[in-house]
Design a protein that fits this description.
Elements: E1 2-3, H1 11-21, H2 24-27, E2 33-34, H3 41-58, E3 64-69, H4 73-87, E4 91-96, H5 101-108, H6 111-121, E5 126-129, H7 132-142, E6 147-149, E7 168-172, H8 181-191, E8 199-203, H9 209-214, E9 222-223, H10 230-239, E10 242-245, H11 254-261, E11 265-269, H12 274-277, E12 285-287, H13 292-304, H14 306-323, H15 326-341
Parallel strand pairs: 1-2, 3-4, 4-5, 5-6, 7-8, 7-10, 8-9, 10-11, 11-12
Helix pairs in contact: 8-13, 11-14
């Protein structure tokens, strides 16, 4: 399996770590090679070269190559691994995670680049997508019959009592414009006049200083714990009654699944495969991306009505238990491996 290093701050590495936590590496002989790390361009280039050398050494020992791919530089890196695996007559599972792949394909690739992309994507003996929107998109490129929907998944934690009405809002992810941080900060600025005890926890790494400066105007109602994981992240998910993700684009964010599993009242953008997770007004609220007014309206509903927040949160947890448990996802992935290898 190839993908971003397991230390990388991001959803794909988070999903990979979920697979390891669920014991995928104990069910198959799994060698994981991290092709990208956080840091400078030089560090990233060195990691890519080192990963490819390791890949060449290990490839003869394995039957299947599982490629976790996104868009942009991830697509270009993984194309090399896919072509190499096929040249060595290995089975290939392409696992597409990128929430911006459609824009990348349509706006950044030339016609020649799009033809090349279709050829590379068609090299997968199995092609995994996160939800129905992506099945439709990639199906138009390589044929829907070749595509399997495998949603992201999380470990469902033990149920604990959550204090609804605490007005604690949690965000998990990269702190940048594309994640809707500007609109979120504007919304909090408006809502704190109505809810003086409102508190926003921005958990992530800042990527744009201009937005970071905007936080100073909200002094006293924003906490920035940095990138969090493990027990610390679980503590925030338990203690915050509301989770928000106002992204401009997404695939199927693991952070939303984690919030569902922890029975948070959720407001998330109606983009990517988020509507496969959040049924509007049933398991949370969907808001329009890049629309501060829509975000304010949906957050206000949860802040004003703790009983509604509890209802939607508990509905979300039940949906996570039914549709997005990591144990079920591992079994589905093993079935894909068996089918690709011809053992069933």
């Amino acid at each position: 399996m190839v993908g971003p290093d397991r230390s990388v701050h991001g959803g794909v590495s988070g999903m990979v770590n979920n697979y390891f936590d669920a014991g995928l590496n104990r069910k198959v002989d799994l060698c994981y090679i991290g092709t990208m790390v956080d840091g400078s361009k030089y560090r990233k280039l060195w990691q890519a070269v080192r990963a490819y050398v390791q890949f060449l050494v290990k490839l003869p020992q394995y039957d299947i190559v599982h490629v976790n791919m996104a868009s942009d530089s991830s697509y270009y890196r993984k194309s090399i691994f896919i072509r190499t695996a096929k040249a060595c007559r290995r089975k290939v599972v392409i696992h597409q995670h990128g929430g911006s792949f459609q824009e990348f394909y349509q706006q950044e690739l030339s016609e020649k680049g799009r033809r090349s992309a279709r050829k590379v994507l068609s090299m997968g003996d199995a092609f995994l997508v996160l939800g129905t929107e992506w099945k439709n998109f990639f199906g138009a490129l390589i044929g829907e019959e070749r595509i399997t929907v495998l949603p992201n998944a999380v470990q469902i934690p033990e149920k604990t009592e959550k204090q609804y009405g605490s007005h604690k809002i949690l965000f998990l992810g990269r702190l940048c414009k594309a994640k809707g941080i500007g609109e979120l900060l504007d919304a909090v600025g408006q809502l704190r006049e109505k809810y003086p005890d409102l508190h926003l926890y921005l958990a992530g790494v800042w990527e744009e200083e201009e937005l970071r400066a905007q936080v100073r105007t909200l002094e006293g109602c924003v906490t920035q714990p940095g990138w969090i994981g493990g027990r610390q992240k679980q503590q925030y998910l338990r203690e915050c009654d509301i989770f928000v993700l106002p992204s401009y684009f997404e695939g199927q964010p693991v952070s939303v699944l984690e919030a569902m599993a922890n029975a948070c009242g959720i407001v998330a953008s109606e983009v990517g495969d988020i509507p496969d997770m959040i049924v509007d007004k049933e398991t949370g609220f969907l808001s329009r991306p890049q629309d501060t007014g829509s975000l304010v309206e949906k957050l206000d509903k949860l802040l004003a009505d703790p009983a509604l927040c509890r209802l939607l949160g508990e509905n979300a947890r039940r949906k996570a238990e039914t549709d997005f448990s990591i144990e079920s996802s591992v079994e589905q992935l093993l079935a894909v491996y068996k089918a690709v290898s011809g053992s069933e």
